[in-house]
Amino acid sequence: MLTLFQKHGILHDRSPPYSHESNGVAERYNRTIVTSLRSMLNSLTLKLWAEAVATAVYLRNRLPNRSIGNSTPYESLYKQKPLIHHVRPYGTKCFVHIPEEAHKAGTKLLPRAIEGYLVGYTSSDKIYRIYIPSQHKISEIRQIHWTNKTIIPLAPIHMESSAQKESFATVPPLSHPPATNPTDKLLDQDYTSTTTTTTTSKEFSHLPPPIPDRPTSPSSQLLREQQQQQLDVTEPIPDTKGPRRSGRITRPPAHFGRNAEEIPDEDPTTYRQAINSSRRDQWTSAIDDEITALKKNNTFEVVNKPIGRNIIDSKWVFKTKKSANGTLERYRARAVAKEYSQVPGFDFEDTFAPVIRYESLRFIHAICATYKWRPRQFDVKSACLYGEFKEEVYMRPSGFSDEDKVWKLNRCLYGLKQSANEWYALFARFLTTKGFTASTFDPCMFVHAKHDCYISLYVDDIAIYSAHNPYLKSLIKDLKTAFEITDLGEASFLLGLHFTYTPDRLRLTQERYIDTVLKRFDMENARTVSTPLPKGIQLKSGTEDERIPDPSIYQSIIGSLMYVTTGTRPDLSYTISFLSQFSACPTE
Question: What is the spatial distance between Cα 130 and Cα 113, in angstroms, rounded to a whole number?
C-alpha cells in the first residue's frame, strides 16, 4: 500500500493509536449509524444487523447535510435529487406474491403470497429487499402488497438560519378516543399540513414551556397531544405507599452462566493481553522459548522489508496445555502466520496434510490389547518448523516495533497453508529411511513389517505401538536425534481419547470430553437411562411458531454428540442421526 501511495504522490498520514478524537467526523458518523441500527432492530431479529446498517447508510445519503450546502450526499455525487417516495418504515410487514413459475406441483389450493418484512432497498425505487421468515432468506422483490393503509408523508425540509422563526402545523384533535398505543394510531392518520401559529392549551399550563431554540416537528406535536388526551381520560390515582414490589428473589437462568463457568481463567487471545495479564511472566517465558526454538532451527532471518513483495501478517497464539486429569502442564506460545494473507502460486502451492483417523486408532489399540503392548507417546516440539520452503516468503512479526524490518522465512511456520504438508512429507521421508511404509488405508499409520512396529502421526503427536525390545529403543534414539521430541511415557490421552490399561484389557473412553459437554449444556445432574431413545418414539418436524428461541443450542448438542460417536460410542450413531433430522427447526 505504501508503494502505491508513493507512486501516485499520496501522503499517508496516520493518526496516533487510541486517539479517537483524531477521527472525529468518522467516529461521530459511526455512532449515528449504530444509534439508527438499535432503533431499526427493535422489532426484528439481530441477525439482520447488516441489512439495517445498509439501510441506515442508504437513508443518511438522502438527507441534507450542512457541510455540503444543505444538499444531500446523493445529489453531490450523482448531480440529481434522490427519489424518496418509495421510502417506508423499516420492518414494515408485507405480502410477497409467489409467481406461477415458482408454484410446486400439488399446491394449487395453497396461498399465492407469503409474509415478509422490509429490510432494505436496491438501486431501483420499485424493488425492495424483503426478509421472509418462513424461508430464512432475504430476496429482492418487486411484486409486494403492503399491509399498512397509509404511510406518513415526509414534510418538505427547509433549512433556515437560527435567527429566523419557524412555525409548524397543529393537527385538529381526534374526534374518537385515542388508542392504547398512541404511536399505532398515529400511523393510521392522514397528515394534512396547514401553516398556523402554535398555541398553548390551558390544560397544559402546568407543564414547562417548550425550548424555543429547538422547535418540535408536526408528528411529535401530534403524538404529545394524543398522549395528553389519554392522560386526561384516565383518573389520577394517588400513590401513598409507593410501588408494590415482589419479595421473591429472582435468579437468571442457569444457561446464562454456561460459558462463564466453562473456562475460569481464559487464555489470552492477543499479544497485548498476554503481557498485561496476571500471568505475564509465564507467557513472556513461553514467548522467549518459542523465539529461541525458531532461531535454533534457523527458521527466519531479519531483513529489510522488500519492495513489491507480499508481506504475510502474523499473531501470537497462547495456550495452556493440560494433562489427562486436567492439571496444568505448561504454557505454550506460538508465532502463527495469518494464512489468509498468503497469495496462491507465490506464497504456497500444495496444502493438504493427512491426520490419523479414529478408525485407525481403534484398530491399532485392538492389536495392542491382543499382544498386551503399551504404546509410547511423544510430542514433537515446534513440528511445523522442520518443513523446508520451496517459495520465498516474508512475514511481519507481531509485537515488534520496527516496521521497516521483516522476517524472511527459511523454514515453515505454524499458520502457513503449506506448513503441515511440508512437515508430514519430511516425517514420512524419515520413516521411509528406517524401513517403514505408509498404510494404504491411512497415510498417517506407518508399518514396519519386519519388527511388528506401528507409528501413528497426528500433526505433532507421535505414538509408537510395539513390544519392548532393542529395536524400539533404537528407534526412539533415532527420533530424538532427528527431532526435538518430548517423551510422554505410556499413551494415556490422545486426540480426546483416554486410555486405561489393565493386565487383561485396554479401555478407551471420552469421559472428560463428555463431562465437559454435560457441563456446557447444564446437564451434569441429568439422570441416566438404559437406552438412548424410548422404544417406538415418533417425532415430527416443528413449525416456525413452535421453534425454540435459540436453535443453535440444539444444533451444538447434536454436533458434540456426533464427535463422541466417531470416537468411542458408535452405538449412538443411529440415535444422533435420527435426532439431527430436526436440527433445522427444533421444538420443546
Answer: 13
Q: Give the mean model confidence (pLDDT) for residues 225-233.
A: 47
pLDDT of amino acid 256: 46
Nearest to 260 by CA among 4, 519, 533: 519
Give the residue from 409, 396, 406 showing the smallest Cα distance to 304. Answer: 406
Strands 144-146 and 93-97: antiparallel
Cβ-in-10-Å burial (0-12, 13-18, 19+) of 112 comes to exposed
Please state the rounded mean pLDDT for residues 50-68: 89
Query: What is the spatial distance between Cα 556 and Cα 49, in angstroms, rounded to a whole number?
Result: 23
Task: Evaluate whether 580 touches 554 at the Cβ level (below 8 Å).
Answer: no
388-395 and 311-312 beta bridge pairing: parallel
Place of cell 402488497: 145
Q: How far apart are CA 577 and CA 558, in angstroms?
A: 9
**pLDDT, position 235:** 43
Angle at alpha carbon of residue 536, lines to 534 and 542, rounded to 5°? 85
In three-state form (DSSP H/G/I as H, E/B as E, the rest C), the secondary structure along 267-281 is: CCCCHHHHHCCCCHH
User: Is there a contact between 299 and 274 (Cβ–Cβ < 8 Å)?
Assistant: no
Contact 88, 154 (CB under 8 A): no
Compute the distance between CA of residue 305 and CA of residue 401 in angstroms, rounded to an integer.
13
Residues forming a β-bridge with 118: 130
Among residues 456, 427, 449, 450, the alpha carbon closest in space to that of 364 is found at 456
Using pLDDT thresholds of 50, 70 and 90, give the confidence band for residue 465.
Answer: very high
Helix boundaries (H) for 460-510: 470-482
**H or E element at residue 314:** strand 314-322
Beta carbons of 385 and 297 less than 8 angstroms apart: yes
d(CA 384, CA 423): 5
The per-residue pLDDT for 237 is 46
What is the per-residue pLDDT across 283-334, written as a single tens digit (0 to 9) for each? 888 888 888 888 887 888 888 888 878 888 888 888 887 776 667 778 888 8
> Is 0.70 surpassed by the pTM of this model?
no
Phi and psi, residue 290, nearest 5°: -65, -45
C-alpha–C-alpha distance, residues 16 and 202, integer Å: 57
- Please answer whether residues 406 and 395 qualify as being in contact, where contact means their C-beta atoms are separated by less than 8 angstroms: yes
Q: Give me the sheet containing 311-312, strands edge to edge.
A: 300-304, 405-411, 388-395, 311-312
pLDDT digits (tens, 9 = 90+) for 374-391: 899 999 887 877 877 777
